[in-house]
Design goal:
The protein is of the alpha+beta class. It is built from 3 helices and 3 strands. The protein has helices spanning about 5-20, 30-50, 80-90, and strands at about 60-65, 65-75, 95-100. Strands 1-2-3 form a 3-stranded mixed β-sheet.
């Protein structure tokens, strides 16, 4: 084989491996999904922060592939549906899981 062909094959192989490394699986996110989830998490936290009866420091928000998980503590049982509604209203949220507890 010519040296030029060897370099071309090597380059294509490395490029293919690099693209596969950025892909998503059922247990991991692609780079784009990770960025999208970070934006969703930030928007949900901002919505909770802007609501007077909710304390963003006591509610944890995690997002994986558009599914938001709310955990932590709220002051009353009436605050749980409010937090869940605020999370559902954020663009890009596919589902909301409630793991919050009343203090």
């Amino acid at each position: 084989m010519k040296p030029c062909n060897v370099y071309a094959i090597l380059f294509l192989s490395l490029f293919s491996l690099m693209l596969l490394g950025c892909g998503a699986t059922t247990t991991s996110e692609s780079t784009g999904e990770y960025i999208d989830d970070t934006v969703i998490t930030t928007k949900v936290k901002a919505a909770i922060f802007n609501h007077p009866s909710l304390k963003v420091s006591e509610i944890s928000v995690e997002t994986f592939k558009g599914e938001v998980q709310l955990s932590g503590f709220v002051s009353s049982a009436a605050d749980m549906p409010i937090a869940m509604r605020l999370a559902r209203e954020v663009t890009g949220v596919r589902a909301v899981k409630n793991d919050m507890r009343v203090k």
